[in-house]
Amino acid sequence: MKALRALLLFGALLAGAPQAQALCLLCSCTASTTPVAFGAYNPIGGAAGSGSGNVHVSCTGTVGLFVDYSISLGKGAYGATYNDRQMANGAARLTYQLYGDSGSGGACSVVWGDGTGATSTVGGSLLIVLLGSTINRQVCGTLPANQVSATPGGYSDTVQVVVTYN
């Protein structure tokens, strides 16, 4: 009878938990990334550049029901604002932008930032039971066409990824 009560209690927790309400015992999350790779870019070719990468979030816990998470991306090391993200090659710069899923099925449709201004965070809810759960969120990048002041070479930037969960 004890097992039945425990099972019924667990069932009551599932049935009574409002959607996206967190209930997690000993939960922890880690994040890793696959960098956005733009490949070769011709600044006078008239075509925009594009690339994609991923943010991977893995959460573990004893039991977690609908653990909300939110992923925000920083401005990068060289951009002053989210609208001015820049990659560097010494003193040379290339402007770029990062996009994420709007949550309503629009892949790479919103500027991925911290939720301020015209940016959005990317998130949702995870169900964690014993072995944990992993989500992968695509990051899309664009390089505007005609950045004619670009010099040949490799460009890079570092963007901070922050995962918030409760």
UniProtKB/TrEMBL annotation:
Coiled coil: none
Signal sequence segment: 1-22
Spore coat protein U/FanG domain segment(s): 25-161
Keywords from the named record: Capsid protein, Signal, Virion
SMART domains, per the entry: SCPU
PANTHER family found in the cross-reference section: EXPORTED PROTEIN (PTHR37089:SF3), PROTEIN U-RELATED (PTHR37089)
Protein name in UniProt: Spore coat protein U domain-containing protein
The species this protein was found in: Hydrogenophaga aromaticivorans
